[in-house]
Design goal:
Structural class: alpha+beta
Strand content: 5-15%
CATH topology of the largest domain: Triger factor/SurA peptide-binding fold
Mean pLDDT: 86
Number of strands: 16
Number of domains: 3
Helix content: 40-55%
Shape: globular
Distance between the termini: 56 Å
Number of helices: 20
């Protein structure tokens, strides 16, 4: 048996929690799945600043809380973004802090509403989890303590976190189950979700517009009060185009080994000498032109991205790469292949594809070009809309538009079938008023009466097909599914609103503190 702060879990207590187990099942799978799969490992690379990450009306978010959530989110983001994962770009630290604050706010709200799980509830709940049971099906203190140690928990911090999670789940269930769903709502939702339509469309992008700018237009632009500020802003935003050191565009083939940094699993099986021997063989193959460089990189390189892009590194500055690599890449002539280059990452074969000389164009020299770009940017949407309207007018008049489409490189595209309650149409977007306008189309081949604008694009949309669902196929099982779905959807909206209102209240009363040192983790490190 297991004791929590000298409180013994009895069979009667055990039965009491069993009545509430269905409420917590989803949570258990999420929490334990995350920790036992190693997402929350304390030995990760992020240590973070010291001290509290946040404080909400007395509720503390500790360094350990932040680290565990950060590592969990990091694992998910790596799966989503792959090689393009960049925690600074997606503001991962801020996302983690916000999630932790949100959870604490809702926990506080749950307490205010009288929805609060106790340590006894948590302890009873844990006894039913297979993860902590021994071979005889009994709660194992050893397994539990090993779990706490491997995930950087104290007993108290784990119980507190699980108590909060169970409280939030109960609050969410309470909110969801109080949503009333009428028969008419179910029928309407069914008709919207089961009725289908598809459209074809022309997409005209303002960035593709052919815009000419006269000298007079540039002179008129310079007379504006805001002109100098906008020119300076453009110059600073695009400074890399005007002021940059020499750049090189190169490919490489990497052969790693068991002593190299970030070695792949296969590279770790190689000794340094074996890696060098392999690099020599690959170099001879490239130099003998038996296979082109990119093909060899795709087949043989230990750089994961090289498998898909043929070792293409794009353009880079000298300081972007380790010194050993840059010294060779910048010294090579265009299309020249290097000898074997050793860096901390292994052995490289480098081919320089092209070079861009250093530039230092000041704002005065660039001003005329910048003004032209700014005027083009202003005129592009207007010119694009004119073309879109011209195409639409000719279609409405039944005239042939093939030459107009060819001239502007436009092609009809057909959407996938979508339901009438969709919030997104693939290829078009998710702007609510545009979606509603498209959904209003009724007859086959009907064209919406004006170009529809989303961002920098204008769309001409024509209905391909529209199939109306019938209520006679709405059976009891489907009704139950829809009621559950509607409750979840509406409950989630209310839950979000509750969190926002609670946050606003505590922010106004200065009851939320966010440690700026944790938020600063999103800032890219300065080059040393």
């Amino acid at each position: 048996m297991f004791r929590m702060k000298n409180k013994l879990l009895t069979k009667d207590n055990h039965k009491q929690i069993k009545n509430n187990l269905p409420t917590y099942t989803v949570l258990a799978v999420a929490l334990l799945g995350m920790t036992f799969l190693g997402v929350c490992t304390p030995g990760g690379s992020l240590l973070g600043p010291s001290g509290l990450a946040a404080k909400i009306n007395g509720e503390k978010v500790t360094n350990s809380d932040f680290r565990r959530e950060y590592q969990a989110q990091e694992r998910r983001m790596r799966q989503i973004y792959g090689d393009k994962y960049d925690p600074s770009a997606i503001k991962l630290a801020q996302t983690v802090i916000n999630q932790l604050v949100k959870n604490r706010l809702l926990y506080i709200k749950g307490q205010d509403l009288g929805i609060l799980k106790t340590e006894e509830n948590v302890a009873q709940y844990l006894t039913d989890l297979n993860a902590f049971q021994d071979d005889d099906g009994k709660f194992s203190i050893e397994a539990f303590n090993n779990f706490l140690k491997s995930n950087d928990y104290s007993e108290a911090s784990f119980f507190n976190e699980l108590k909060q999670s169970l409280t939030l789940q109960t609050l969410n269930d309470f909110v969801t189950n109080t949503v009333f769903v009428s028969t008419k709502t179910v029928e309407w939702d069914y008709l919207l979700s089961e009725s289908k339509m598809s459209v074809r469309y022309l997409a005209l992008n303002s960035s593709d517009a052919k815009v000419t700018v006269s000298q007079k237009e540039k002179e008129q632009y310079l007379k504006r009060e805001t002109a100098e500020a906008k020119i300076k802003s453009w110059y600073n935003a695009n400074k890399a185009k005007y002021v940059t050191d020499e750049k090189v565009h190169a490919r490489h083939i990497l052969v790693g080994h068991n002593e190299s940094k970030n070695a792949t699993a296969s590279a770790q099986k190689r000794t340094k000498q074996q890696a060098y021997t392999k690099a020599q063989a690959l170099l001879q193959k490239v130099l003998a032109a038996k296979e082109n460089f990119a093909a060899v990189a795709k087949k043989e390189s230990d750089d994961p991205s090289g498998k898909t892009n043929g070792g293409d590194l794009g353009f880079f500055l000298r300081e972007d790469m380790v010194k050993e690599f840059s010294d060779v890449a910048f010294k090579l002539d265009v299309n020249e292949v290097s000898q074997i280059v050793e860096t901390p990452f292994g052995y490289h074969i480098i081919k320089t594809l092209s070079k861009e000389p250093a530039k230092n164009i000041n704002i005065e020299t660039a001003k005329s070009e910048i003004v032209e770009k700014l005027v083009e940017k202003e005129k592009a949407p207007q010119e694009t809309q004119k073309i879109a309207q011209l195409v639409l007018d000719k279609l409405s008049q039944g005239k042939n538009i093939d030459s107009l489409l060819s001239e502007n490189k436009l092609n009809w595209k057909t959407s996938k079938e979508f339901s009438l309650n969709t919030r997104y149409i693939e290829g078009i977007g998710s702007k609510e008023d545009v979606i509603n306008n498209i959904l209003s189309l009724k007859k086959k081949d009907e064209i919406y009466t004006k170009p529809l604008k989303i961002g920098s694009k204008f769309f001409i949309v024509q209905l391909v097909d529209k199939k109306q669902a019938k209520l006679d196929k709405l059976d009891d099982q489907k009704k139950k599914q829809l009621i559950s779905s509607i409750r979840y959807s509406e409950g989630s909206k209310f839950f979000k609103q509750m969190e926002e209102q609670t946050r606003t209240y505590y922010e106004k009363n200065n009851k939320i503190y966010l440690n700026p040192e944790y938020l600063a983790l999103d800032n890219p490190p300065e080059n040393l």
